[in-house]
Amino acid sequence: MKATWKHWLEYAAVRVVVAALGPLGTRRASAIGARIGRLGYWPLGIRRGVVTRHIAACFPERSEFERIALAKATYEHLGRVGVESILMSRLGPESLGDLFEGVDGLDVVERARARGKGLVLVAGHLGNWELSGAYLSALGVPVAAVAKRQLNPLSDAFVNRTRRRLGMTVVYDDEAVRKLPRLLRDGFALGLLADQAGLGAATFVPFFGRPARTPRGPAVFALRFHAPLIFVCAARQPSGRFILHLEEVEVTQTGDLEADVDATTARFTTVLERWVRRYPGQYLWAHRRWKRQPPDTPPELREP
Q1: CA 54 – CA 288 distance, rounded (Å)
Q2: What residues contact residue 73 under an 8 Å CB cut-off, 6+ apart?
Q3: E-strand spans in 179-272?
Q4: Is residue 198 pLDDT above 90, yes or no?
Q5: Which of 78, 125, 185, 270 could form a disulfide with 284 if both were Cys (CB 3.0 to 4.6 A apart)?
């Protein structure tokens, strides 16, 4: 795609952020990102109604005061993630470790790699999803990140230069079917975000009790290539640093591939929900997760 003047302006804004906040260091810049993100809640009100409805539906036991505080926290977190992701361009693999205070479940990945089948990493928009793949790569795990093409070709090139410099292989989603099988056979860990279903293959599984259209890709690759399926999340801690959580998701093969894909998709979505409940202020509630549902969905389970 040829860059337009609008693309150049957007890209210039990204470079200004890097130049202005980069010298502060990632953690201090992240705090500024939180204040910027808070503006999305008020006064801008960007998708504030969507966020508050989703939180109220998923956490009915919380008081209104608690839900408002949680909504504000999610905007702050998104501001932090945006700044941290941009400033990754100034980091090297060796400096990523300074952002983490530990890894929970690295033995899960080591055992999975020992099987020699490659692995499938599945994540949601929880914590800092960009850092999770980069840090695993820094730990010596060959990661192939599946990415969507951004509308701005300059920003797209900027983000993917950073991913590659941090050790990741980038595969665009429209190339995934062709390239990922070979990468799995070569021992790579495929990194897939699986809580936003576009026009690709998807199935409806429960998420916070409501049917949500969910990508089937992670389950398909794990089942067809007998690869371990690992849930991954880089979750922010009170210290401001992260813990990388890794958890294997059960993959059962009964001989009925379609049923097995649906069951596996439901399992990793259940794992994601459990971690969202643990870190609710770090989830992307602004996404309309239940926008598409089966036509026979009862009224009480439709999109909030």
Answers
A1: 8
A2: 281
A3: 189-193, 202-207, 210-215, 229-236, 242-249
A4: no
A5: 125
Place of tokens 């936003």: 196
Which residues, 6 or more positions from 8, have their beta carbon under 8 angstroms from its beta carbon?
154
Expressed as residue numbers, the domain containing 22 is 5-301
Q: In the structure, what pLDDT confidence band is assigned to residue 197 with cuts at 50, 70 and 90?
A: confident
Overall size of the chain counted in residues:
304
Eight-state DSSP code of residue 259:
H
Per-residue pLDDT tens digits for 46-63: 999 999 999 999 999 999
What residue type is assigned to position 198 of the chain? Answer: G
- pLDDT above 90 coverage of the chain, percent: 93
Structure tokens at 277: 């409940």
- Quick one: CA dihedral 217, 168, 28, 35, positive or negative? negative
Q: Which residues contact 229 (CB under 8 A, 6 or more apart)?
A: 119, 120, 122, 218, 219, 222, 248, 249, 251, 264, 268
The DSSP symbol for 12 reads: H
Residue 224: closest CA among 118, 86, 302, 133: 118
- Dist. CA 218–CA 264, nearest whole Å: 9
Instruction: Count up the domains in the chain and report the number.
Output: 1
Consecutive H or E run containing 6: helix 5-21
